[in-house]
TrEMBL record, chain A:
Single GO MF annotation: ATP binding
GO terms for cellular component: plasma membrane
Keywords assigned: ATP-binding, Nucleotide-binding, Transport
Domain ABC transporter intervals: 10-258
Protein name per UniProt: ABC transporter ATP-binding protein
UniProtKB/TrEMBL annotation, chain B:
Transmembrane parts of this sequence: 6-27, 34-54, 60-78, 90-115, 135-158, 187-206, 226-246
Name the UniProt record assigns to this protein: Branched-chain amino acid ABC transporter permease
Organism classification: Bacteria, Pseudomonadati, Pseudomonadota, Gammaproteobacteria, Pseudomonadales
Pfam families attached to this UniProt entry: BPD_transp_2
Subcellular location: Cell inner membrane
Keyword Transport carried by entry: yes
Keywords: Amino-acid transport, Cell membrane, Membrane, Transmembrane, Transmembrane helix, Transport
Listed GO biological process terms: amino acid transport
GO terms, molecular function: transmembrane transporter activity
Coiled-coil stretches noted in the UniProt entry, renumbered to this chain: none
PANTHER family (UniProt xref): ABC TRANSPORTER PERMEASE PROTEIN, BRANCHED-CHAIN AMINO ACID TRANSPORT SYSTEM PERMEASE PROTEIN LIVH
Organism: Pseudomonas fluorescens
Length: 258, 293
């Protein structure tokens, strides 16, 4: 065990998770440094999405602990994660389909509203200025991700690639410290992937957001990430820089192929 | 012509009473996409608790707040025991749960307070008031004013506040709303508590009109056509739907009754609802579901 240093934003320590006896994750430990883009790779069913769900409190591991932003928890609760600055997107897009793009992004700002509901109802006190500030922030993020032409369109009617971007916008709206992206480029063509990679890089640079992402396209992962963790059958088989992982024999055998 | 307006306004005021019940459904539908079959039972529970406390010598305000507290407690209990274990299940499962819940609440109400019929006097004279030569029920005017106040407060709460946005988010996708930090249990408990409050108001007004008895839980049936016409997800829709039903049934009774036989006000609302289902299945103000397959 290394001593936790300040630059480690997230430390998973010996996390195990099982569902009714089926092991999804077996004693996984790794660190994510603040400001890094960390890639989680591995074959389907390797436990990558489960691991993200553990980090943002949807699943509670049977053993192990999560150290995030200097606090160690046995289990993270979903609202604690959100309040602590963890935002995420989902593999199968979990957007509010009946709401406009703008409203979806505004839900990401919801936790930041400080005025009371009485003030909000009557639009007095802190509420008007606060509402305007959140609206402005949401519009900035929408512009940043270049989805402004659709901001009043119902999300359910948008094509898949745009929905992926709206979901990213909503996650970003909460000004996250840690951004979890579950296959942000799944189902995209090469050009869309390049654009999404650029967005992720820009977010990382512009806001200093730490990113943990799951991706199957090895080329994208190797180009984008500072740090790669490889899972197979719920165990960690590789951990290091892209170059180290590429040279790791266990990874080559399990995943990259010969 | 004067007579026509008298009938029309009388009908509209009666419609407000239907809308009051319908609003309770809309609240829970908006928050969970579920038709809460237990709303009628909650109306009965509230009215029966209130009138029983009143008969045991509690002052009006005390009885009101004690009933309100019991409705909130009921809401918290429902959230913990019924809704929380069913998170992320399909809406039909939750619907079945509310079906069972309605029997449970009806039974509980009668177990606690007995099954007798109670009279309820809210202290509002039910004498007709003469306005511009038209005779209007004072009680109905009071009910309409109450409903108007309630609707205004609710629409501000649900359209302007963080709670409102959270509510729509929860209804749309519970998993996603967890990810943006919304606490599902809180939102559900809140919505059920507010629905309980609306049920209490409806229970008092309907109880004063019909007497507090078991059949009070059947006012649900009057709310159904209102919801179909107004749309399940709009409070404004529930009001407009209620007004349409109220006016239509009274006008039909007076003007069509003599031609095709009286007593038609009982089924006119359902015929109207059927027509709406054929022409505009989402109702006047309901959100049309957009689903990609």
């Amino acid at each position: 065990m290394r001593a936790p240093t300040d630059s480690v934003l997230l430390r998973l320590d010996d996390i195990s998770l099982s569902f009714k006896g089926i092991k999804a994750i077996t004693s996984i430990s790794f660190d994510v440094k603040a400001g890094d883009i960390c890639g989680l790779i591995g074959p389907n069913g390797a436990g990558k999405s489960s691991l993200l769900n553990v980090i943002n409190g949807v699943y509670h591991p049977q053993s192990g602990s999560i150290r995030y932003a200097g606090r160690t928890r046995r289990r993270m609760r979903a609202h604690q994660a959100a309040e602590g600055g963890i935002a995420r997107t989902f593999q199968n897009i979990a957007l509010f389909k009946g709401m406009s793009v703008l409203d979806n992004v505004l839900t990401g700002r919801n936790l930041k509203r400080r005025s009371s509901w009485v003030e909000q109802m009557l639009r007095v006190g802190r509420a008007p200025r606060e509402d305007d500030a959140h609206r402005l922030h949401a519009e900035q993020i929408i512009a940043f991700l270049q989805i402004h032409p659709w901001r009043h369109v119902l999300v359910g009617t948008l094509p898949y690639g745009l929905q992926k971007r709206v979901e990213l916008a909503r996650a970003l709206a909460s000004e996250p410290t840690l951004l979890l992206l579950d296959e942000p480029m799944a189902g995209m063509n090469a050009q869309e992937k390049a654009q999404m990679s650029q967005f992720i890089r820009d977010i990382n640079h512009a806001f200093g957001t730490t990113v943990v992402l799951i991706e199957h396209d090895i080329g994208v992962v190797m180009g984008l990430c500072d740090h790669v963790v490889v899972l197979d059958y719920g165990r960690k088989i590789g951990d290091g820089t892209p170059a180290q992982v590429r040279a790791n024999p266990a990874v080559i055998a399990a995943y990259l192929g010969t | 012509m004067q007579f026509f307006f008298e009938v029309l306004i009388g009908g509209l005021l009666a419609g407000v009473m239907y809308a009051l019940v319908a609003i309770g459904f809309v609240l829970i539908y908006k928050a969970s996409g579920v038709f809460n079959f237990a709303q009628g039972a909650m109306v009965l529970f509230a009215a029966l608790t209130f009138v029983s406390l009143l008969e045991r010598g509690f002052p009006f305000a005390w009885a009101f707040f004690a009933t309100l507290a019991s409705m909130v407690a009921l809401a918290l209990l429902i959230e913990k025991v019924v809704l929380r274990p069913l998170v992320n299940r399909p809406p039909i499962i939750l619907f079945m749960a509310t079906l069972g819940l309605s029997y449970l609440i009806e039974g509980l109400a009668q177990f606690l307070w007995g099954a007798q019929v109670h009279g309820l006097d809210l202290g509002i004279a039910d004498e007709p008031l003469e306005i511009r030569g038209m005779l209007l029920s004072q009680f109905d005017l009071f009910a309409a004013a109450t409903a108007a106040g309630l609707v205004l407060a609710l629409s501000l709460l649900f359209n302007k506040t963080r709670i409102g946005l959270s509510l729509r988010a929860v209804a749309d996708d519970p998993l996603a709303s967890m990810a943006v930090g919304i606490r599902l249990p809180r939102i559900w408990a809140l919505v059920w508590a507010v629905a309980g409050f609306v049920g209490l108001v409806a229970g008092l007004l309907w109880g004063a009109r019909l007497g507090v008895q078991f059949s009070l839980s059947l006012v649900v049936l009057k709310a159904l056509p209102v919801l179909i016409i107004g749309g399940f997800s709009s409070i404004g829709g529930a009001i407009v739907g209620g007004l349409i039903i109220g006016a239509a049934e009274k006008i039909a009774e007076i003007y069509l009754g003599p031609i095709i036989g009286s007593g038609i006000e009982n089924w006119v609302p359902y015929v109207l609802a059927l027509v709406f289902l054929l022409v505009r299945p989402a109702g006047l103000f309901g959100e049309r579901a957009i689903e990609r397959v």
